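Re: the multi-chain job from yesterday

Posting the exact lines I submitted so nobody has to dig through the queue logs.
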Amino acid sequence: MKKIHIALLVLIAITIAVLISFMGTLSTYDSVQSAMKKKGKTVSIIAKLDRTQPIEYDAVKNPNFLSFVAFDSLGGNMKVIYRKEKPTNLEHSERLVLKGKMNDDHFECSEILMKCPSKYKDDMNAAKKNLETTSTQ
Amino acid sequence: MDYTGEHLLPGLLGHFFITLSLVASLVATFAYFKTAQSKNEADRGSWKAMARGAFIVEALSVFAIFGILFYIISNHLFEYKYAWQHSSRTLEVKYLLSCFWEGQEGSFLLWSIWHCVLGLILIRKARKWEAPVMTVVSFAQICLATMIAGIYFFNWRMGSNPFVLLRNEMDAPIFSQPNYLSFIKDGNDLNPLLQNYWMVIHPPVLFLGFASTIVPFAFAIAGMWKKSIGDWTKPALPWALFSAAVLGTGIMMGGRWAYESLNFGGYWAWDPVENASLVPWLTLIGGIHTLLIYKHTGHSLRATHFLFLITFNLVLYSTFLTRSGVLGDTSVHAFTDLGMNFQLLAFLFVFLIPSFVFYAIRYKSIPHIVKEEQTSSREFWMFIGSLIFFLTALFITIATSLPVINKIFGSNFTIGEDAVFSYNRVIIFVAIIIGLLTAIIQYLKYKQTDPRFFWKRILVPTIISLIVSTLVLAFGNINYQEHGVGFLGAIWFAMVCAIYAIIANTAYIWIGMKGKLKLSGGSISHLGFGLMLAGILISSSKKEVMSWNTSGIFVQLGEKNKITGEPGENLTLVKGLPTTMGSYNVTYESDSMHPKKPLWYYKIHFKSKTGKEQFTLMPNAFVNYKGNQGLMANPAARHYWDHDIFTYITSLPDPEKNKDTASFKPQNLKKGDTAFYSNGFYILENLTTQTNVPAGGLAPDDKVYTATIKVFSKNNTSYTSKPFLINKGGSLYPIQDTVTSESLIFQLNKIDDNSAELGVKESNSMMQYITLKAYKFPFINLVWAGVIIMVTGIIISIVRRVQLNRSGRQIENLTL
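And the result, structure tokens for all chains:
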């Protein structure tokens, strides 16, 4: 066997090992309920903002504390705490991908990815609303 | 119905040219195919004339489509959906071009234009390779033309046409009026994030990079097709180098754009869209190196074929990833689904399957050398390096493709808690190995190296590198603690390798090349690569958050981040009030508004504590912009030679706050009672009494009463306010508490058992403040300088390779 083939095999073996360890660090998408069963583990939850509950954020008091209530499509709801700034159009988000860990009484969120109706163009609904308002002027 | 005020001619012309380009590229593909296949000279000549004609018609049509679309956008013809959706009258002229690439149709068009330009050059320069290579290019042009065709087959629409009319695309009552256009005063405008000068230049460069990967791909196919295997590598090498230079520049321009206008605080975040453009670059670099091995030793031709084939296919795969909407949940800036997924997948498979089936068929006939490479040879280690580039590309592809893997296997994986670190912890080892190989390989000779010769030449650069590395590690204060000692060790090791790569390659220009810069393209680009590596390592591991909220006056005691025990990254600045941030005192001085748009500029004055230095930064933000409620912020940075200070707005007070008249009302409440104020209501939640308060100057029997008031404002925000009342030796001292963003002031006047008298005041003057983040990026300029040097080195190599090919042909001609 050529040395180059040995090197090839070794490197491929390392790559596989890296991929396996990478798979080990992955988290999963969960519902509120299934996340409750995995307390302390990092999960991603696709949820919606509960607009009937107040969003707690006061930049003057503490710009690094945000709390709100979110619910998922199965109806499970949870209090979310995010110790960073309030994402600017949280109120208008359609969907939230929340990454973090479930605690006893709240979801300690480390990352919020928002899907907003008009965040990245091409979605025509918000644009259409704009058009309707221009036409009534 | 007859609509008034519409300009339909440009649209009709546009449709005509789109159809023409589709037909012409079909003809060109067929005719080039016949040219390549025909055995007799006369046939070949006539097919070739036809093919060239068709390709030129195709190219002219694509230029015409581009011109017409630009005419529509620049004249604000909002009857066309594309103009209405992506531009506006207030848009600065320089951004009119950016409107093209905001939409999928325009960016396909851009890609297609570059194919045309490259095709025209190939027609002039490719000689005997023209026919097979151009067959592939023309075929890609058919695929791209279908992307913007917008033709219906029964109910299935092929492609998305940029010339569709707004009234045909949308159902809105205004379209029932013949003069509907007079109501559409303005377009939807360009996404504010794209209103940045890098966005004018970055997409064309990136797409030229993408488009140019087809040339080495087509040469590899042509080589296998004409069984002139291996011969193709000569003309392909300058093209592959060109592609690597342009794609590399395009990727890093994207990084620069992200750095200057996105708010993830850096130039690279391992976002799937970024990864998708990096991966083909990695395999392309691998391919260039295996090609060089082949040129010098005859080894690695199979690997070269494979890497050039996979590079173009990865470009197609990244097109699918970023445009199909499949990344919706993982990327901040992928395109949304346009309903073209089937077509995008077809585009990928129509190249992927035939190219690799063809490769498998020809595999045996691609020559390879049975004799083993020496471990002391240059080619052995170059091959290892190329392999590592490929495996890295594989790793990044798999990690980025998790949403696709989920779709196929029904799993629900997503990247772990710290997405950036899950990449970095792997890439750091790639950096170490590649840095080391980059430093050493040029000192090895092809075939085999005499160890004495090797050590004699590399000794001095090695010693210098060790000294410099020791100095950098000793005094550079690279002390990145976030991921433990092991990772820090890896960073240090990678840093040493990067320094070694810089010094060894600089030295090689004199040791190996005798200072002849024209011949040193390789060393120069490797030196640039090393510099970039060092810049990436330093700027990321020494990035400092300046806006740690440690001493902000409004932070309540005990409100630190309870989880990490660290203060948050955001700092609130009240207008006119100097606040400490890092080594500066910063003041939010004033704000001003763009004359035409809801774009606000915030003037923030920095003064260093030593008083030596002061400057003003103006980060800006779009506030409530066209359906994008909230703010979209653009950072501002101050550049120094050795670091950047970088800041952006993260939160602003709600400008629609109710500003009712102020009055100071006494309010008697029991525990649990509710009372209203102008912008909502509040509940007295709790009353507590404390004795033995350890705070300064209080006797053990002095009392502190605290009222806990929960305030609910109309806009769904809630706050907790805690006014105190201190009873010190019988005298009462109320300590007010302010809910600043609601302009509410609470004071606890009296307390007995379960009821209290509150003083409630609604202040007239709304407090003005901004919340921001600020970072210090050290040595970010090393990254940009590294990229520029690397690209310069590649360009030098292109010039040299083109000259070599030319003189090679002259020698051939002489011997004939």
